[in-house]
Amino acid sequence: MERREKRYLDPYFISQIDDLTTRSFIDGLPFEYRIQMGSEARMSHTSAFAAAKTISKRRELDKHVSQTDVIHDLDPITKEITGMLGI
User: Fold this and answer.
1) How far apart are CA 45 and CA 13, in angstroms?
2) Entry pTM
3) What is the per-residue pLDDT for 69?
4) Crossing angle of helices 45-72/11-27, nearest 10°?
5) Is residue 84 a contact partner of residue 72, using CB atoms and an 8 Å limit?
6) 9, 39, 45, 49: which has the fewest Cβ within 10 Å?
7) Residue 1 lies in a domain
């Protein structure tokens, strides 16, 4: 942003910087995130960040739900997972 304030940059050059930023950000994400992000060809750097944040929150929620399911499956007497034992 500092360089943009001190001199004129043409819109093409700015779009090239933004595209490189987006590609670099997406390339640095875990494989599971990149698969879920889909085509990054038309994605801006801000929308890529927002998409990664959404995926991360969804994964945390899924993780929390699966941990809660295991806790609810515990037999209060034997403290074993009843769903896994077929009981």
Assistant:
1) 15
2) 0.61
3) 61
4) 20
5) no
6) 39
7) no
